[in-house]
Amino acid sequence: MFSEKELSEIKHLLKIKKNILILTHQNPDGDAIGSSLALQLFLKKLNIDSAIIVPNEFPKFLKWLPKAKNIIIAEYRTKYTEIAFKKADLIFCLDFNTAARINQLEDKLNKSKAIKILIDHHQQPDSFNFIYSDITQPATCQMIYKFIDSIGEVSKIDEDIAYCLYTGILTDTGSFRYRNTTAETHRIIAHLIDKGVLPDLAASNILDNNTTEKIKLLGTVLDSVQLIKEKNTAILSLTREQLKSMGYQKGDTEGFVNYGLSIIGIKFVAFFMEDLQNDFIKISFRSKGNFDVNVFARKYFNGGGHINAAGGRSDLSLENTIQKFKNIIENENI
């Protein structure tokens, strides 16, 4: 958490700074969108206006969240984004540890003279004016809750804020299945339920959002599974042609990688997917136990993340990327 001195300074900044931006990473997920909206709604409770800018479109299953329609998508509103960065005098950076995670906005953030406040749970953060970085936290939404609590304003969390925080914690803990889900997490969730969150409604909006196309796409992914039993590893993959033929929409593959971990005896899963527009492979890694996929992704696939959940990329073809992966894990202790 921020120190007492830092919290005092941040509270002062919130009183005097008028142009506040909230940023999150490329391909925003539930934790990114949930934490951004929760912070914006909380600031509004303090009579502080802010704008949320995300690099690109976010999944449809997050559009139900309160005030989600107010999020500015930079790739659609380039002029607004340019002006907003020039005017900004305070920027909250949520759920990303390095400016490279915001892609085309990286240069704008680096050039901005605004004071930058990081709240994030990924390893090895860049330098910011204020940093609340804690890799033991399961979700940035949990950290936003603790930030609100630390400045003595937890009573201002209402039903809308609670739904946003609940969404991020639910999605980033794998519906409370990952080992970073703690007793503290459940205490916070209990408070959010007390504030009005209906778990069945949240789960229905977040998890039960399958289209016919998405179900067919899942079938295609499961049909691709390759098992390397001696390494307790599963490989999943999707080609660009398969994505197009199934009418892929952003967010459709959310959670697919986790199906590999549900296979008996599997401790490590890699999901390789060709990007629709660009010539590279997006990779998701998941693991059980002590196998650190953050280290693995950083070492071999220009990525990173958490101990049991990370991502990466490859500029090789899909076939060559999978072969590279197979060659690498021959020497890994999984």
From TrEMBL:
Residues 19-169 form the DDH domain. Residues 247-329 form the DHHA1 domain. GO terms for molecular function: nucleic acid binding. Gene3D superfamilies: 3.10.310.30, inorganic pyrophosphatase (n-terminal core). Coiled coil: none annotated. It comes from Apibacter adventoris. InterPro entries: DDH_dom, DHH_sf, DHHA1_dom, Oligoribo/pAp-PDE_c-di-AMP_PDE. This is DHH family phosphoesterase.
